[in-house]
Amino acid sequence: MYKRAAVLLIAALSAGLLIAGCGDDDEASGDAPPISKAAFVKRANAVCEERISRVVDQITASLKDPAQASKDGGGKVAEDELVSAAVVPALQSEVEEIRALGAPEGDEAQVEAILEATEEVIANAEAEPEVLTESKEPYKAPEKLATEYGLIACPLNALAAGG
Predict the structure, then answer these.
(1) pLDDT tens digits, one per residue of 114-126
(2) If we measure between CA atoms, which residue out of 154, 139, 11 comes closest to residue 84?
(3) How far separated are the first and last CA of the chain, in Å rounded?
(4) Alpha-carbon distance 159 to 142, whole Å?
(5) Do residues 23 and 42 touch, judged by C-beta distance below 8 A?
(6) Is residue 5 within a helix (H) or strand (E), and if so which, with residue range?
(7) Phi, psi at residue 30, to the nearest 5°?
(8) Domain locations in the chain?
(9) Quick check: 79 and 8 in contact, CB under 8 A?
(10) CA separation, residue 33 to residues 6, 27, 99, 103, 114 (Å)
(11) CA–CA gap between residue 163 and residue 110 (Å, rounded)
């Protein structure tokens, strides 16, 4: 249980770092100039670290909860519930925030490709939560796209078992 919980904790750290983004309302409005790529990457990585710390706190609290730890001996069911309760919502929030931030001018297609690949991971995880802990395959596309773009703060493949 503790080894897989550690993998899940690493997953939570990694997932949000890749697709994090933020911006204040002024930047998201049509009145502000588009964000530069450098600012976009810097802010995305910084916000991700903060957001992931909240996910880690949620997972850590769940693991300390005796009722959570006792489910299915603290194994598969508990892991799937943590994926559904913590990791998937964090990924969804990150996609929403990055869309609200807006892509740097000329990079809209690249940013949208990253978001769409991440949304595919989310959809798969909602259908089968174990997909986030059992294989590195689901993360290859979003990780490659994000890394190529410059969002290198977190490889998604750390989500998979044996990370």
Answers:
(1) 889 989 988 988 9
(2) 11
(3) 16
(4) 12
(5) no
(6) helix 2-19
(7) -70, -10
(8) 2-159
(9) yes
(10) 42, 7, 16, 11, 22
(11) 26
